[in-house]
């Protein structure tokens, strides 16, 4: 059906999607013969194929349908050490949202994967499972964005996050 598909929000440079010439804003409708209707389903379908398998990706760009081909690559787990952003975040490991988190936190964000209870990130109030969605009032949807926002921040930093269904604000000075 025409109402199915998943819109591509971002493409990592050098990724299989980048090599296949998939672009931000494309709507992926099928992979091989599998119809795609949600981000979770997209991730699950990709997971069905062995590494090295070439797959046909049908998508809509503008009003035109395209067929592109990509080769399945091993999944690379992205993480960012909090201390790269600030000494106040030491002991914190940040990751992109999982498919399940993306479907729950529609505005995006990044996940706090772990926090060492002996480090500054814990003392600041961060906990595993938190989803940071804003840094200094800038929306955060990727590890790159939080790095850019942190680089631009001066003395005071305001972190907004979800903890379950609660919204919290942490101010670092």
Describe this structure in words.
The protein folds into two domains: 6-71, PDZ domain (Pdz3 Domain, Roll); 80-172, PDZ domain (Pdz3 Domain, Roll), CATH 2.30.42.10. Helices cover 20% and strands 34% of the residues. It contains five helices and twelve strands. The strands form two sheets. Strands 6, 7, 8, 9, 10, 11 and 12 form a seven-stranded antiparallel beta sheet that branches.
Task: Compute the average pLDDT.
Answer: 88
3D shape? elongated
What is the CATH homology-level superfamily of the largest domain?
PDZ domain
Helix run count: 5
Oligomer: single chain
Could you tell me how far the N terminus lies from the C terminus, measured between alpha carbons in angstroms? 52 Å
What are the SSEs and their pairings?
Blueprint: E1 6-7, H1 16-19, E2 27-31, E3 34-35, H2 39-48, E4 54-61, E5 64-71, E6 80-81, E7 92-96, H3 99-104, E8 110-115, H4 120-124, E9 131-135, E10 138-139, H5 143-152, E11 157-163, E12 166-172
Antiparallel strand pairs: 1-2, 2-3, 2-4, 4-5, 6-7, 7-8, 8-9, 9-10, 9-11, 11-12
Question: Summarize this, please?
Answer:
This protein is an alpha+beta fold. It has 5 helices and 12 strands.
Q: Top keywords for this entry?
A:
173 residues; alpha+beta; seven-stranded antiparallel β-sheet; five-stranded antiparallel β-sheet
């Amino acid at each position: 059906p025409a109402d199915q598909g998943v819109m591509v929000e971002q493409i990592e440079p050098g990724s299989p999607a980048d090599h296949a010439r998939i672009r931000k804003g494309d709507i992926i409708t099928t992979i091989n013969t599998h119809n795609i209707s949600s981000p979770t389903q997209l991730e699950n379908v990709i997971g069905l194929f062995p590494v090295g398998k070439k797959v046909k990706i049908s998508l809509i760009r503008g009003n035109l349908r395209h067929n592109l081909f990509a080769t399945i690559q091993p999944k690379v787990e992205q993480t960012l050490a909090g201390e790269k952003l600030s000494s106040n975040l030491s002991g914190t490991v940040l990751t992109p949202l999982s498919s399940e988190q993306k479907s729950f936190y529609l505005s995006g964000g990044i996940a706090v994967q772990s926090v060492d209870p002996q480090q500054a990130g814990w003392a600041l109030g961060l906990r595993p499972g938190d989803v940071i969605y804003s840094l200094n009032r800038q929306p955060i949807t990727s590890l790159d964005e939080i790095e850019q926002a942190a680089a631009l921040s001066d003395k005071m930093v305001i972190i907004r996050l979800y903890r379950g269904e609660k919204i919290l604000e942490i101010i670092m000075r």
